[in-house]
From TrEMBL:
<dbReference type="Pfam" id="PF08241">
    <property type="entry name" value="Methyltransf_11"/>
</dbReference>
<dbReference type="InterPro" id="IPR013216">
    <property type="entry name" value="Methyltransf_11"/>
</dbReference>
<protein>
    <submittedName>
        <fullName>Methyltransferase domain-containing protein</fullName>
    </submittedName>
</protein>
<keyword id="KW-0489">Methyltransferase</keyword>
<dbReference type="InterPro" id="IPR050447">
    <property type="entry name" value="Erg6_SMT_methyltransf"/>
</dbReference>
<dbReference type="GO" id="GO:0008168">
    <property type="term" value="F:methyltransferase activity"/>
</dbReference>
<dbReference type="InterPro" id="IPR029063">
    <property type="entry name" value="SAM-dependent_MTases_sf"/>
</dbReference>
<keyword id="KW-0808">Transferase</keyword>
<dbReference type="GO" id="GO:0032259">
    <property type="term" value="P:methylation"/>
</dbReference>
<feature type="domain" description="Methyltransferase type 11">
    <location>
        <begin position="19"/>
        <end position="120"/>
    </location>
</feature>
Amino acid sequence: MLTVDFQRFRVTPGERIMDMGCGAGRHAFELYRRGADVVAFDMDADELAGVETMFGAMRLEGEVPDGASAQTVQGDALDLPFPDDHFDKIIASEVLEHIPDDMRAMRELLRVLKPGGQLAVTVPAWLPERLCWALSEDYHTAPGGHVRIYTRAELEAKLKSTGFRVDGHHRAHGLHAPYWWIKCAVGVDNGEHPLAKGYHQILVWDIMKRPLATRVAERALNPLIGKSVVVYFTKPATPSKPAQAPKETADAV
């Protein structure tokens, strides 16, 4: 289940691209299939072990274009172990909401991205996330969980203040927001509740079969209740003077 739109975030074979906070690797795998030289970066060694295994399986199955490469790197988003101007593109999907010092992480993303390079950031959208927090304390208080709810305006303002240029946005996963509201209402760990289990089966069917009915429904729901907001940025070729960092508010979605 991809959140970044690869029609907007176009990948050219041979580009060096980092999936920062890659988790289980869903975007890293797509980058690899498209011929990029991929760095899957995360703090979690267990997650990275699974990603490394999948990279190997993709090579064995012939899913990877000739010349593409992939590696996993463990480290801290606040101190990326890469030189300045190293990557052509970066994806940071569903990770900044976990990082207390998000501005420092944003500055690191700017540092390691080449001038003219593109950044795609996804975070939980404000309204769906606000409802999850209201329905369940367990949803956001677990260790390593979400520490903030971004408005799109705040996310864009913070990255602009770091030095990025905003290139556009969209919402994704409109079908998934109700699932998480159900989970929060019945218990985030109660996967066997009939409502949660039934809705999960619908999501699996949608992901595996991509039927027309759910595709149309998701396109209609995305602008209203899309679970994630995706914003695209560019690092200017000529550095601009960073603006003052904004205060964290919830006055715009």
